[in-house]
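hi! just following up on the protien thing from before. the input was this:
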Amino acid sequence: MSKRRYDSEKAKVEIMEHAVSLFSQKGYNQTSVGDISTASGYSKGHIYYHFENKEKLFVLLAQQTMQDWHSKWLEKEITYSTATEKLYGMAMHVLYHYQTPLLRSGQELAANPKSSPESIQQLFNLAVVPMGAYRAILQEGIDREEFFNGNIDEWTILIGTWLGGLCQLTNTQELKELEPLFQQAITIFLKEIKKGGI
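and the predicted 3d structure came back as:
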């Protein structure tokens, strides 16, 4: 019994690994369950057993990608000693980890009229993860009296939309060239919220 459970988990992991590769290379619309079956060596039946359909498989992969993004941030976060440093660090983290291999495929799924509203909502809900990370930094800054005691909900939305908007430039410019712009965005933001200036 335990051996079968282990093999089942192994199959699931291998299917997911091959699916990430295909979605990254071909996009969501051009990748079929048949393609994933051929690449992974598992039958379509195996894939449907574990994931129900291509859409649910993709959403699971997108959720895993966002968890990885957050885990990488948590590893980095402990290297900063102040909330101010963390905001600058987060800007660089967002810049260098925005362009995930699944980003284009996720945009395709969200734009596809055949996609279920539930799946689209689950993809949009992934924004909760970075917004929660921004909010935690801002709350820490308030608690440690680095920042004024302002409207944290508004600040979280502002920093999220500002960084998200800047990320659109990653499609056309080298990431290294964008570093000063991302840093300046934080500097301007801090002028409004930081006690004693920056």
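The first helix runs from residue 2 to 26.
The radius of gyration is 20 Å.
cheers
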